[in-house]
Amino acid sequence: MQILILGAGGRLGGALTREYREKFDVVGLNHPQVDLARPEQVRDKLSPVAFDLLINCAAMTNVDLCESQREQAFAINAEAPRLLVQICSEKKAKLIHFSTDYVFDGEKGQPYVETDRAKPISVYGESKRAGEENVLAMQDRHLVVRVSWVFGPDRPSFLDAIIKRAREKEEIDAVADKFSTPTYTRDIAVMLSRFFDVDVAGGILHFANSGQCSWQEYAQHALDCCHASGVRLKAKTVDALKLADMKNWIARRPVYSVLSTAKYAKLAGVTPRPWRDAVADYIERSYSKR
Questions:
Q1: What does the pLDDT look like over 61-90, one tens digit per residue?
Q2: Which CATH architecture fits 2-156+182-209+258-272?
């Protein structure tokens, strides 16, 4: 199978490129090589490339910046997927497009399933939802995969920022009243490969590690894992912040955006491992020998 990965320089794209190179014929393109905001460049770059599967990990993900750069956000997150799905259809290739839990407003109070109505409350969420719709409109074998709170070794995430702060300061804090689920890029890579040749009813699939937590709980578990692995930190506990305290944030964020993985578990026959186990695995691999 020939696979083309867009966003190969990012946290998720980098992980998928590395994980799949040993098993498949993989070409990874990063932002300097192809700018999704320039449709003519996208077509020029992709047209000569032979591939059976296109995995789009590229996106404009700075939630606050999207508020002030709406046109750019929609060009990359909404219009580019429309072009990508057209190119895939011309090549008789499959598109797997990554989306986000931020397409929901966070008011449901229980895990979101794939058939729940998307109701974004930020420009980022709106643009990502428009991208989903553009992919799904083709009504082919293409797949939209929603993920949440992605972490991994290829680019620093919230998890790495917390550990960095804990190394420098004795007192750190994190938001305690916003909830979702951390998701490890290695686990996404394993999950995704199961669906390269599998059609998914409805064209949307949620994936995250099992369970749910606040950012404070997530951060505290990371510190606990570091201490257990012998990683030297100054901080031992994470104090609580409220979402309302985040005055420097521009965009609204969903308070509760946990994704249900029941559909994935039914299709794959396995349940994603708990987020706590995934975080412990990542810290053991990435920090315990430092």
A1: 999 999 999 999 999 999 999 999 999 999
A2: 3-Layer(aba) Sandwich (3.40)
Is residue 188 within 8 A of residue 150, CB to CB? The reply is yes
List, by residue number, the catalytic residues. 124
Largest CA distance in the chain: 56
Q: Can you give the residue ranges of every domain in the chain?
A: 2-156+182-209+258-272
| CB count in 10 Å sphere of residue 45 | 16
Q: In sequence order, what are the beta bridge partners of 95?
A: 54
Residue 108, CA distances (Å) to 86, 191, 246, 256, 282 in order: 34, 26, 22, 7, 30
Q: Is the pTM of this model over 0.85?
A: yes
Neighbouring-strand partners of residue 210 = 274
The tokens describing 217, both together, are 């709980």
CA distance linking residue 28 with residue 19, whole number of Å: 12
3-state secondary structure of 70: helix
The half-sphere exposure of 151 on its side-chain side, counting CA atoms within 13 A, is 26
